[in-house]
Automatic annotation (TrEMBL):
Organism phylogeny: Bacteria, Bacillati, Actinomycetota, Actinomycetes, Pseudonocardiales
Domain FHA intervals: 41-93
A Pfam short name: FHA
Region (Disordered): 1-23
Protein name as catalogued: Flagellar motor protein MotB
Annotated PROSITE patterns: FHA_DOMAIN
The keyword Phosphoprotein appears for this protein: yes
Species, as recorded: Actinophytocola xinjiangensis
Entry keyword annotation includes Phosphoprotein: yes
Transmembrane parts of this sequence: none
Keywords, in A-Z order: Cell projection, Cilium, Flagellum, Phosphoprotein
Family matches, as InterPro entries: FHA_dom, SMAD_FHA_dom_sf
Length: 263
């Protein structure tokens, strides 16, 4: 995971920092803890002595002791001790009944569920190397996201279907086929767009991405599962948007095309 400079450089500026040192920060402040077997660090709404790191101080949905990190077996282990869930990267959720999770070296954001839609961020960084000069990754070329090649007709159909996704709507849904066909016929009347033609192009893209083995989300329905088409379409559009294969400027081109037709 990428490191926020403010946390990633703490070990470079503090001589006490060494491999395994935990750096933790919330809006209320930050702490640095040297690794010693059995050492425990707690975070939550309560201040000292309940916790060493305060988070969500004004939110009564956050427990006074909401989580703790314990150093053992050469790792910091995260455990949920609060009433609300903790959310980790990749959507991983932790309940009080969940087994402790070891932190990997580097940066880990942890979100504490609060009132309503509120989530309180706890930033964790575990040092894992000695500072022997600049990290070569700091000057390395940026690795771009994997963008998927699409044929022109596939791209146009998916832009039409994924308009809400390209607007980054909170709960996007694919455009229904009836409306998608109507818009495509306006843009390309000579192509003879139909629901079947859209489905064929969507199916072809789903199959290519599935066969690549690089997409974690389900894109194809197996014979023995009950994944619905809406779920598979949602997974496909999210992958195309997350990988920046489809981007918001695609909508600008679409709007200009409709404007030209009306003028």
């Amino acid at each position: 995971m990428s490191r926020p400079p403010s946390l990633a450089r703490l070990h470079e500026t503090d001589p006490r920092s060494r491999p395994g040192t935990l750096h933790a920060r919330s809006l209320a402040g930050g702490i640095q803890v040297v690794p010693e077997p059995g050492r425990t660090v707690r975070f939550g709404r309560g201040g000292k002595p309940d916790t060493q790191l305060r988070v969500g101080a004004d939110d009564t949905r956050v427990s006074r002791r909401h989580g703790e990190l314990t150093y053992q077996d050469r790792s910091w282990w995260l455990r949920n001790t609060g009433q609300q869930l903790l959310r980790l990267p990749r959507g991983q959720l932790m309940h009080t009944s969940t087994e402790p999770v070891p932190l990997t070296a580097g940066y880990t954001p942890v979100f504490v569920r609060g009132s309503g839609y509120r989530e309180h961020l706890v930033e964790l960084y575990v040092t894992d190397y000695d500072n022997n000069g600049p990290d070569p990754k700091e000057t390395a070329l940026t690795v771009p996201p994997k963008r998927w090649p699409l044929h022109d007709d596939e791209r146009l159909a998916l832009i039409i279907l994924g308009q809400e996704y390209l607007r980054y709507a909170a709960e996007p849904r694919p455009l229904v086929y009836r409306r998608a066909v109507a818009q495509l016929r306006v843009l390309e009347p000579e192509f003879g767009w139909s629901k079947r033609k859209i489905e064929d192009r969507v199916a072809a893209v789903r199959r290519r991405l599935h066969e690549s083995g690089s997409v974690r989300a389900k894109l194809m329905r197996a014979e023995d599962d009950d994944a619905c088409d809406a779920t598979l379409m949602d997974n496909l559009l999210r992958e195309l948007v997350d990988s920046t294969t489809l981007v918001p400027p695609d909508l600008d081109e679409l709007d200009r095309a409709f404007d030209d037709l009306e003028s």
